[in-house]
Fold this protein.
Amino acid sequence: MDAQVQANRRAQIIFAAREVFACEGYSKASIKKIATKANLNSPALIYWYFDNKADLFAAVLAEATLMLHEISLNNLIEDLAPQEALHFLAQRFFEIFECPANKRIFRILISESMNNAEVSDHFAETVILPLKNYLVPYFQQKIAVHLLRPHDPEISARAFVGMLMHYVFTDQTFPQLNASQPLPDVYIEEVIKIFMDGLQGENLSV
């Protein structure tokens, strides 16, 4: 099979899977339903590209968070000052959830992660850990040049990711609080100001 045809078919399956997972949830979604959504002649075709449902779900998450991995692979924030870098990362993170299907996927992750270790692991490995693990060496670098005060970068990375996750979690699970929820841009600005007020080093004036 032509490589481009294979790539297109794989993308078609991932798109269909995202829609089925978003509507049915992880547990109720089936390979058969995904194959039907993807207009495949047989569910068996999916196994040409993915080992099982868990592997396909991981691919859906990876596709949804591709922009975060591109930041890491291309070192897009390495030379930015901390305030600029954190603003850039936060904006990209929130952009993931502008897609309605991704919002539904996130709600599935929240509801099923507590009872399904497989889903929880995929969420951590695809969304949380890549962002945290990218921030740790970045913070180490900025500490070394005194743009951030000496501190444990593992803790600060966890704290910053937690601030972003809190906004998305509240937005998706407590709609009654949305009236008092600030707009994403406002939230990003305030969170970064609070964060940097505690971490700025001697060579940085925020």
Remarks:
- Residues 22 and 105 are 5 Å apart (CA to CA).
- The domain at 65-199 is CATH 1.10.357.10 (Tetracycline Repressor; domain 2).
